[in-house]
Design a protein that fits this description.
The protein is an alpha+beta fold. It contains eight helices and 14 strands. The chain is globular, with a radius of gyration of 18 Å.
């Protein structure tokens, strides 16, 4: 089954939500702090409302889940939304924030769109149709040995909080190139600029859209144990060729996956 129609809707919805987000980005907004101490703004809430409306009008029987509002419906077809991913960047008036929409069917992500409106970037993929960034098809790197890989560790403070610093030490002993503080996004893997990213955090709405794009570009996303899931609140994203090598190296650490 192809999901071209659903992908087109997701692309249109991210673009429209991106226009709304940029309106607030340019004109100003009030910042609130949620219970988990993360930021939220009117842009987050209004963009999610817009996206939900567009989806529900086209697919009224589908389930919709998002970061800022309650789940809607019950269905094997589930839309997953992050209306402004990277709100911390948005609040600081930095352009590195995303609009994320994906569709999961029978617990498999089959379509996804990642839009960076402030940078005029849109990436998208659907199952079996390849991955694209600004209409150009993209592929992961050909690096097949961990010692030659360019690996990024996202959010050092999360590794410290989760007592996972041993992962950084173990993998760093093997890889040639590493970056502990880089705030690159997962599209760098899809385009072949980075070979792996390890992140000890991430909700399903943070990961779903990227997952299908990475997979259609030839890569892989799993949790720290290697399980194919977006629901473990951590992730390893690679070019696929070094994925098991990364997992094995992580499990060698005192604070690794098996702990």
């Amino acid at each position: 089954m192809n999901y071209d129609e659903e992908l087109e809707l997701a692309k249109h919805a991210t673009i429209e939500a991106g226009k709304l987000a940029m309106k607030y980005f340019n004109e100003g907004f009030k910042v609130e702090t949620k219970k988990d101490k993360s930021f939220v703004t009117i842009a987050d809430r209004e963009c999610e409302k817009l996206i939900r409306k567009m989806i529900s009008e086209k697919y009224p029987d589908d389930m919709i889940v998002g970061e800022e509002h309650e789940d809607e419906g019950e269905s094997a077809r589930k839309w997953i939304i992050d209306p402004v991913d990277g709100t911390e960047f948005f609040v600081r008036k930095e352009k590195k924030f995303f609009i994320l929409i994906s569709l999961e069917v029978d617990e498999e992500v089959v379509a996804g769109v990642v839009h960076m409106p402030a940078l005029d970037i849109i990436a998208y993929a659907s199952k079996g149709s390849g991955a694209f960034i600004n209409k150009k098809r993209v592929h992961v790197s050909d690096v097949d040995k961990l010692e030659n890989a360019n690996v990024t560790f996202r959010y050092r403070e999360r590794f410290e909080k989760e007592k996972k610093m041993g992962i950084i030490k173990s993998v760093s002993k093997i890889v040639k190139m590493k970056d502990i503080e880089h705030d690159n996004n997962y599209l760098d893997i899809a385009s072949g600029n980075v070979d792996a990213v390890i992140n000890p955090g991430g909700e399903e709405w943070d990961l779903a859209a990227f997952k299908i794009i990475i997979e259609e570009a030839g890569g892989k996303l799993s949790d720290f144990s290697g399980k194919d899931t977006i629901y473990s609140k951590n992730c390893v994203i690679t070019n696929g060729k070094i994925h098991q090598q990364i997992i094995d190296a992580m499990n060698m650490s005192d604070g690794g996956c098996k702990k």
